[in-house]
Amino acid sequence: MTRSARHRVEYIIALGVRRVVRLLPNRAALAIGAAIGLVVYGLDRRHRQVAKLNLLAAFPARTARERRRISRSVFIHLGRLLMGFLKFGTMSRDQMRALIDVEGEDRIRQALGKGKGVLILAGHFGFWEMHALGHSLLIGPMSVMVRPLDNPFLNDLLERARGATGTTVIHRRGGLRRAMRALAANHSVGFLIDQHIHGPDAVYVDFFERPAATTSALAALALRTGAPVIPVFTLPLPGGRYRLVYESPVEPPDPDDPDANRVFMQRCTDVLEMYVRRYPELWLWMHRRWREPAPSPSEVQAGASADSREART
């Protein structure tokens, strides 16, 4: 099958799933998502192994059984995220509002009150896709800086879903000018800071005590425009509901510091790490966040040996 044909098949499947999800109650959609996550966990050995090594490096003091539980929970969570997002995009605005709680709304309102726009600091944590929809619905206009999906048909579907409440998509390449225009209009602009990047924009920060490359664009925009940086996390609540948590603004460093971008991104990363440590089952551990240095052979062997021992008990 050619790449184009595969993309079309994936798109048709996604449309079919979306039509089925539209008919389901929200809790049923999330339950099906959890089941899908479990199936993928059992079949996707490659990403399961990446998650295993990442969790070993991040939580070496935890038992192999605890790390396996977290890994399994992550796959379940991603299944729930997928189905929940598809379901959320088929709801009316009133139905969406009924599923969202907001914590720290005064913080985002005060930040927007400065008139410089707000930079939203987020990661692939919790129900991050619901945040963009909920923010545009309850707080005000929002743009999100993203990299397009490889499948153009799925990318168009995703962008239409993100736009259901007025969220605007800004593609990362060449998107800084659009982001600056959005900030000048006192809108919010969201950045996901927890994926490995390379190139002139990359800076290295410590994440779980290991160097990880991240974008410096968020810090550069904040220092140039004076826009506050507000960390945001979307947590699950009972009954298929969601809580949008707006944290206090990240304190900017001295703009005259020659290392200001890296210092700023380290402070942003520290907030994200705090939440990942608190709720490890809600973060994307199967992403190759740390390209080097990898866990040492002795650490990997120790983890493998522990897994083997527990599998026999």
Give the CATH topology.
Glycerol-3-phosphate (1)-acyltransferase
Top-tier CATH class = Alpha Beta
SSE string, helix = H, strand = E?
HHHHHEHEHEHEHEEEHEEHH
What strand order characterises the main sheet? 1-9-8-2-5-3-4
Could you estimate the helical fraction of the residues in percent? 40-55%
Q: What's the shape?
A: globular
- The parts where pLDDT drops under 50 for at least 5 residues are 294-313
CATH architecture: 3-Layer(aba) Sandwich
Described by strand count, sense and barrel closure, the largest sheet is: 7 strands, mixed
Strand content: 15-25%
Give me the number of helical elements: 12
* Overall mean confidence score, pLDDT: 89
Compact description:
By secondary structure, this protein is α/β, with parallel strands linked by helices.
What key phrases describe this protein's structure?
two-stranded antiparallel sheet; globular; single chain; alpha/beta; 313 residues; Glycerol-3-phosphate (1)-acyltransferase; disordered C terminus; 12 helices
